[in-house]
Write a structure and sequence with these properties.
This protein has 249 residues and is of the alpha/beta class. Helix content is 45%, strand content 14%. The chain has nine helices and seven strands. The site of NADP nicotinamide-adenine-dinucleotide phosphate has 30 residues, from helix 1 and helix 7.
Length: 249
């Protein structure tokens, strides 16, 4: 896949799946705008990737920061072709009966409203350009309840519906919208899950998790016409057919 001349904005690019995606997309020739709260981490990654990358410190739970980040991306690269809504948090991990209401709401602000903020800021720009690709990182938790994860499950279910809504509203105008459910990935998030000791995901062995490079490569493939059969849907990286197609073994 050659993304030369294309620009991708990646939320949550300071580590994990987002950072791996930045490396894979830059390797494919794309300009990349790296968003996260950890300004040092995205500045280091932008330095590694060179002129193709800019670091834009941004908290996705604040719409005005996301809007400003899209403007910074347009100023640097002149266009926005791909939005990767990846930023996410897993905490609070707590039973519904004891969850802190403020912390519960903050997770929704990041995982659900953050995805909306990215779409809201990017879609008018993409429409003006005649189209674009919007990919959101989903999860098995969008469709399956897990003990202690009410905020995370509810946020991912909401983000999965937002993905479908964006497809319904935008497909006719050239917006390609899809979700990617990666399965479990060896990132900091899984360290937090392991430390909680709650529910079967925390009991998994580290070797059960796939490397962050796998979802990154799947996201790159999703930017091309080869994935068009899945528009408006969610692709699961647990699906052996998809893994085979992408050579992920
Ligand atoms: N790991 C898994 O097994 C797994 C499975 C299914 C889905 N996912 C999803 O994949 C995505 C990436 O997760 P990961 O595994 O790579 O986790 P991670 O290593 O913890 O990375 C999370 C990223 O999100 C960013 N982030 C968190 N809050 C943010 C905010 N308010 N504003 C901007 N950026 C924010 C973090 O950057 P800062 O802290 O610097 O802001 C970081 O770059 C998430 O949506 C997660 O739900 C992960």
């Amino acid at each position: 896949m050659d993304l030369t001349g294309k620009t991708a904005l990646i939320t949550g690019a300071s580590r994990g799946i987002g950072a791996a995606t930045a490396r894979v997309f830059a390797g494919a020739g794309a300009n990349v705008a790296l968003l996260a709260r950890n300004a040092d981490a995205i500045a280091d990654l932008a330095g590694e990737l060179g002129e193709q990358a800019i670091a834009v410190p941004c908290d996705v739970s604040r719409y005005w920061e996301v809007e400003a980040a899209v403007e910074a991306c347009l100023k640097a690269f002149g266009r926005l072709d791909i939005l990767i809504g990846n930023a996410g948090v897993i905490e609070p991990i707590a039973p519904l009966s004891g969850a802190d209401p403020d912390a519960w709401g903050k997770l929704i602000d990041v995982n659900l409203k953050g995805v909306f903020h990215g779409m809201r800021a990017a879609i008018p720009v993409m429409r003006k350009q005649g189209g674009g690709t919007i990919l959101t990182i989903s999860s098995g938790a969008a469709h399956n309840p897990l003990e202690g994860w009410s905020a995370y499950c509810a946020s991912k279910a909401g983000a999965a519906m937002l993905t479908r809504c964006a497809h319904t509203e935008g497909a006719a105008d050239g917006l390609r919208v899809m979700g990617l459910s990666p399965g479990t990935v060896a990132t900091d998030m899984q360290h937090v899950i392991k430390a909680s000791g709650i529910n079967p995901v925390s009991q998994l062995d580290w070797s059960d998790h796939i490397p962050a490079d796998w979802p990154a490569r799947a996201l790159l493939w999703m930017c091309g016409a080869g994935a068009d059969a899945h528009l408006g849907q969610e692709i699961s990286l647990r699906d052996p057919e998809i893994r085979n197609k992408l050579g992920l073994t």
